[in-house]
Amino acid sequence: MKAVLFLVGVLLFMFAASGPTKADDAEEVQNLVERAVAMVKDRGKEATLKAVNDRQGPFVKGDLYVFAMRMDNVMVGHPHEHSLRGVNLNFVKDAAETPLFQRFKEVVEAQGSGWVEYQWAKPGSKDPSPKKSFIKKVPGEDLYVGAGYYLDTKPAGR
Prior knowledge:
- The protein is an alpha+beta fold.
- Helices cover 37% and strands 25% of the residues.
- The protein is built from four helices and six strands.
């Protein structure tokens, strides 16, 4: 009996120590995007973009963060890649040669929001990894926002 209780205890510890699941990441990504869209309505586009661009802001949680694009696929918000702001990313392709930002735009134009899977290198890596992003159009604005997570491993620092 003691061995069974010990084994159950070990299993519970391993489950608790395993950290967030991919379902947790998906939920958190969607929550971040929904909060950014709501902030545009509540506080305006400029205040929201300022928050999106802030590395210490409300739209960065560990390795997850919100980015913002105009509908012409010009990047207007990114907390880590400041050099991308103002750049048209319409023809940027992922590792599978899919025009990624065109796909984002197609999803928001057709559905208003949705998930897009693609291949993208993790920070500090040259090798592509599977990634999934939730993208949502900001109603009444020439803007959509998104956030994503890597599917193959738990993000570092979380």
